[in-house]
Amino acid sequence: MAIAEPKSNDKPIVLDDAIIEGAEKLSEEDIARVINDMIKTEGGARFKAYLNTCMSCGYCSEACHFYLSNDKEPRFAPAAKVKQTLGEFTKKKGRVSRETLMQACEIAFTECNLCRRCMMYCPFGIDIAFLMLFVRRVCHKLGVVPRYIQDTAHSHSATMNQMWVQEDEWIDTLQWQEDEAKDEFPDLRIPIEKEGADVYYSVIGPEPKFRAQLIYQAAVLMHVAKIDWTMTSSPGWDNSDMCMYTGDLEMTARLKKVHFESALRLRNKRIVMGECGHAFRSVYDVGNRFLGWKMPPIEVVHAVAFYDELLRENRIKIAQKFDRPVTFHDPCNIVRGQGLHEKARNVIRQTCETFIEMEPNREHNFCCSAGGGVINCGPPYKNKRVESNRVKADQLIAAREKGAEILIAPCHNCHGGLEDIIHHYKIDIEIKFLIDILFDCMEK
Amino acid sequence: MKSIEDWDWAPGKKIVADMNQWQSDYEAAEEPYVSPDGERIAAIVKIEEETYTVCVNGTPWERTFDKVWSLRFSPDNRAVALVSDTAEWSVAVDGATWENWFEFVWNMQFSRENGSIAVAAQNARSYFAVLDDAPWESGFPSMNNLTVSKSGKTSAAAIQTIPLKEGDIFEFQKGCFSVAVNGVAWKNTFINAWEIDINPEDRLVAAEVRHTLYDYTIAINDEVWPTSFSAVWRPRFNPVDNSVTAPVKVAGGWSLAKDGELFWNGRYSQLWHHFYSSDGKKIAAIVAPQFGKWTVAENDKAWDLRFNEVVMDPVYSPDNRHIACTGKADGKWYVALDGKAWPTPYDRVWAPVFSPGGDLVATKVEIGGKYAIAVNDKLIDIPFANAWDPVFSPDGSKLLVKGIGTGEDEGKYCRHILKTDTLPRR
Amino acid sequence: MYDIYALARGPFAWGAFIIFFGGIIYRLVTTVMEARKKDHVVFDYFSPYYAMRSMLHWIVPFGSTSMRRQPVLTIVTFAFHICLIGVPLFLFAHVILVKESFDISWWTLSGMAAQVMSLIVILSCVYFFIRRLVQPDVRYLSATTDYLMILLVAAPFITGFWAARAWAGFEVATLLHMLSGELLLALIPFTKLSHMFFFPLTRAYAGSEFGAVRHAKDW
């Protein structure tokens, strides 16, 4: 599938055959028409203000793990990604070559995690992620999108979940996890479609597919904490959303409608969601907006905030603290996305004996480089993704040297990205979800 | 099917079942469900390890199963559940299973008029619907959005017609999905097909489809509208003239289209869940005239009322003169009638139920951790630990209230018939 | 010579100020109108508290991590902006012109201070120019207009300083000072220099989203 290994770093090299196949179908007129139409219809005041206000000062460069990890190669600076994409689009009034379009696609999809760290380093607060999403939407409209993430978007559209999980497979997974858990806790239930339950618990597609033990652990947590909860058997169960990242915002809207309405139909009081970052972004401040909901129509609680609440309210008790030293990776979408960093630290302090901070941390933590749909662009981009996050490896190595043996990351994509980094840079650290720790330590 | 006129409408209270007993009779009893007429309460109960059945009014079904889930009452008061025995699945109706067994069944639905039962089923990775124990003759690689008609004669679903290899995005984009009606697929294929409506005579089926990655429209009996939109929501048949309307997204916002052409002039930040008056003369919908401000619009005219979080459950009164809905603002739920929200904030409300004359609106509500029935925003003074939707008698003189009591009635499921003339009037 | 001077003192000055203020109003009004149409979120999520919080962190020197990480750039940037705005507003010669025309006046800088501050602007421009040339990421980002903009900003200060020092040819310098200053004013609304009035808008929006919705810091 890979077309060529990158030889030099001064230009993106197209690594995905679907990008090439998609672009081959386009004439320069097609490209110009779509770009100009997008700028006309969706390039609003923010778009223009951001492009016109950027002073090319370079404050953002130091924020970006791609830039820092690629030996400060200038084209990886956040503002440079805008220059190479929207800069070209606007300068040439949309009449860009297929080559430029493909490169723009590579940049927007695989060289930016939409992590919004650079937004915190820009004196004007220019939202580079917003601009890269604009580029992605142009690519979507032109049918030039990396194969793996496009396939995921197709899965979303056909099944309302990320992984082509059929309706029966999902329900079967819940029943299977319930059966497994009953061996340990005979009274335990995973209540399916329970009308009026307080909590509606939702997860992302990969949980039933690859990480069903997380559903098991969540069920045990709910059981022990005596939460009146439910999960839906309907296609609203998956809270994830790669369409938000391919630029298919109409589909994002449909996914979120199905998700929220499954909880509204069951009259649940709030949605508690598993440890996923991007899904939180989609549910909390992206998808709801496309549907006209200023805030989610039902309160949305991320797992980290939920654990914090359970501990504060003494709904669960810690039997024995986790005795190996841990460090913590702040996922962008729940830290820059909802400021959950202190709650996460409260959970860690209550459950772990030794906590070693990673530097930088909280809002300033570096992204895992998997987020923003980058890991979902699949194998062609694995090397680039991992090599472009040497700073993360440095961060982890420093934490390891201070004694951390366990890396806690409460986000699925972070897990995927960090696992690859740990493996590639041969870092002797083990990665866990927060619920892995809670599950180990709580009184059951 | 016993008609609603024949239910027991004699005023008074009846204790139907003592649920406290169930907890001691069985290893475990799950959350109960109550029949529409309120005469029966049922729950999935555990007899012993891996042995489950359904208990109705204290009496368990004779047959037990490895697993039971999705217990619900049909509109004609039968207890129906999905059951499994030796890794095969079927539907049990009042304890008797269907003849057909499958690898899995789910998504149980009832037709509104006669209580026909439809489920989605899977055998050997082939997906199909089963309507009253009759499986579709053909199965498909996948199936979603199963829909059963009001009459119970027709089932339809969005189906996949062409199997896909993993990652074959360009094949997908040629269109591998369609709609099957009673197991027969339409000839057209689409990128996607989603929600479906079936007309009252079971003659026409309409579905939301996407025929390129960017063009959404409505298909009716395999014919697509000539116009496309950047998005659509579920289509609806006019109950009288069979025209089709659907919310569509155009430049400037959402609007309503009829038979392929824009029908409403208003442009809304959102418009969905539209519905007709029974005479087909009026259409109303949940709308957001501005971002984050929700209300109901009738014939393209939005109420002045706004809820800042969500609007749900809009419904016409039987005489089509009123619309009631629920709405949430600043974390509290309200009931609204004809554009005016009633003042009481609730922790939760359920769908409003009109009296036959349209003068009363009853709703199950949660307030301060207890459940109750509110009629025209006045609470009936019977607190419940749990309650079910109230039902008016056909002549409107009585109200059936169903719930598990508190205090001396704790754990007891009671059925109350109240005279409506003793209830608060608007 | 005198004719051009009269033009620069009269119609050009008027023109420059009209274009400057008119341009700002035009750009702001059209931006707000476009935002109303296509970016309603800017208004829906606007939070005065968090907008102010964000702006404060970014107008106080070293108020953000970003600024602390690049101390030299931060010092130069603040010194530059303070002098850039301070000198033209509080220069005795400018205030006198206003007094003559409108009979209003205000506090003025001493001649020495004004000259030092002008020098700071000029040296800052030199720094910015060299930084653009030598720092690889900034060089990559820079277009010709970015370099021209530095020259455009420096020009009135170089010529003004020249005139104030009464060096040889200061009459020409004075004229060039007026013309370059007017050109700068007139171009501000229509170039990236418009960041001077877009700053509060983009910053306020970022602050509102980060603070009110995402409960996170943006500095």
Number of domains of chain A: 3
Q: How do the SSEs of chain A run, as a string of H and E?
A: HHHHHHHHHEHHEHHEHEHEHHEHHEHEH
Stretches of chain C where pLDDT is under 50 for at least 5 consecutive residues are none
Structural class of chain A: mainly alpha
- What's the number of domains of chain C? 1
Largest sheet of chain A: 4 strands, parallel
The share of residues in helices of chain A is 40-55%
Query: Which oligomerization state do the chains in this entry correspond to?
Result: heterotrimer
- State the helix count of chain A: 21
What is the approximate shape of chain A?
globular
Helix/sheet category of chain C:
mainly alpha
The total count of helices of chain C amounts to 12
CATH architecture of chain C: Up-down Bundle
Q: Helix content range of the residues of chain C, please?
A: over 70%
Could you give the count of β-strands of chain C?
Answer: 0
Strand order of the largest sheet of chain A: 2-1-3-4
Structural Rg of chain C: 20 Å
Largest interface: A-B, 49 and 53 residues
**CATH fold naming of chain C:** Fumarate Reductase Cytochrome B subunit
Task: Name its key features.
heterotrimer; A: about 450 residues; mainly alpha; Fumarate Reductase Iron-sulfur Protein, Chain B, domain 2; Rossmann fold; 3 domains; four-stranded parallel beta sheet; B: about 425 residues; mainly beta; five-stranded antiparallel beta sheet; 2 helices
Please provide a written account of the structure.
The complex is a heterotrimer of chains A (444), B (426) and C (219). Chain A is mainly alpha-helical and 444 residues long. Chain A folds into three domains: 129 residues, Fumarate Reductase Iron-sulfur Protein, Chain B, domain 2, CATH 1.10.1060; 153 residues, no CATH class; 116 residues, Rossmann fold (3-Layer(aba) Sandwich). Chain A contains 21 helices and eight strands. In chain A, the strands form two sheets. In chain A, strands 2-1-3-4 form a four-stranded parallel β-sheet. Chain A has a four-stranded parallel β-sheet with strand order 6-5-7-8. In chain A, helix 11 crosses helix 21 and helix 15 packs across helix 17. Chain A is globular, with a radius of gyration of 22 Å. The N terminus of chain A is likely disordered. Chain B is globular. In chain B, a hairpin with a 5-residue loop joins strand 20 and strand 21. The mean pLDDT of chain B is 96. Chain B is mostly beta strands and 426 residues long. Chain C is mostly helical and 219 residues long. In chain C, 81% of the residues lie in helices and 0% in strands. Chain C contains twelve helices and no strands. In chain C, helix 2 runs parallel beside helix 11 and helix 8 packs antiparallel against helix 10. The longest helix of chain C has 28 residues. Chains A and B meet through helix 8, helix 9 and helix 13 of A and strand 7, strand 11 and helix 2 of B.
